[in-house]
Amino acid sequence: MEDCSVDWSVWQGEMPATLMFIVRDGEVLLIEKLRGIGMGKINGPGGKIDPGETPLECVIRECQEELHITPIKPVKMGELWFAMSDIPDIHCHVFTATEFEGTPTATEEAVPIWTKIEDIPWDKMWEDDAHWLPQMLEGQKFLGRFLFEGERMQWRDVQLEDAGVSGWLIS
Ligand SMILES: Nc1ncnc2c1[nH]c(=O)n2[C@H]1C[C@H](O)[C@@H](COP(=O)(O)OP(=O)(O)OP(=O)(O)O)O1
């Protein structure tokens, strides 16, 4: 992997966003994204944070809009910092939950897919996911930083909180 051209000490993602991974009985609720960034990929529900909205408010709203469900007691597990080449840099807050209200329902934005954790379709997902999602699903909090050229990951660094990194990252 090449050296990183980004100075992360001054980096600020212009586009704040969220992701949610609901886990239940050894399965995780993924979606096929029907529009927006990453259209056609498998991901968790989520999306861009609206002005004035907190990450928690956003991730609940996005689950309601995309799947007609409301996650209960979401827990923030980490952050993803994406330095992008062709769109604004993305600062993504990642949550998990084990309970939710409602029935996951396909919408114009997303198709819900309950997936056994051992069957997560990495080849249909963003390239970075394989470097932090398994650890997060085991309960580890994290900061992942990635450099993308288009949809190809050029550089990555994932730090786990239990490896002694950063109480500051989780809010
Ligand atoms: N590289 C990578 N890995 C994992 N997840 C993501 C990325 N890049 C990303 O953008 N994402 C996630 C972050 C967000 O959850 C979505 C992108 O937001 P988007 O769906 O475009 O936002 P919405 O507000 O729902 O969009 P529209 O309503 O405008 O369609 O992908």
Automatic annotation (TrEMBL):
Its EC number is 3.6.1.56. GO terms for molecular function: 8-oxo-7,8-dihydroguanosine triphosphate pyrophosphatase activity; dATP diphosphatase activity; metal ion binding. It catalyses: O(6)-methyl-dGTP + H2O = O(6)-methyl-dGMP + diphosphate + H(+); N(6)-methyl-ATP + H2O = N(6)-methyl-AMP + diphosphate + H(+); N(6)-methyl-dATP + H2O = N(6)-methyl-dAMP + diphosphate + H(+); 2-oxo-ATP + H2O = 2-oxo-AMP + diphosphate + H(+). Keywords: Hydrolase, Magnesium, Metal-binding. It is an enzyme of class 3 (hydrolase). Residues 13-142 form the Nudix hydrolase domain. One of its GO terms (biological process) is DNA protection. Gene3D superfamilies: Nucleoside Triphosphate Pyrophosphohydrolase (3.90.79.10). Signal peptide: none annotated. The keyword Cytoplasm does not apply. Its cofactor is Mg(2+). GO terms for cellular component: cytoplasm. PANTHER family: 7,8-DIHYDRO-8-OXOGUANINE TRIPHOSPHATASE, OXIDIZED PURINE NUCLEOSIDE TRIPHOSPHATE HYDROLASE. Oxidized purine nucleoside triphosphate hydrolase which is a prominent sanitizer of the oxidized nucleotide pool. Catalyzes the hydrolysis of 2-oxo-dATP (2-hydroxy-dATP) into 2-oxo-dAMP. Also has a significant hydrolase activity toward 2-oxo-ATP, 8-oxo-dGTP and 8-oxo-dATP. Through the hydrolysis of oxidized purine nucleoside triphosphates, prevents their incorporation into DNA and the subsequent transversions A:T to C:G and G:C to T:A. Also catalyzes the hydrolysis of methylated purine nucleoside triphosphate preventing their integration into DNA. Belongs to the Nudix hydrolase family. Monomer. This is Oxidized purine nucleoside triphosphate hydrolase. The lineage of its organism: Bacteria, Pseudomonadati, Verrucomicrobiota, Verrucomicrobiia, Verrucomicrobiales.
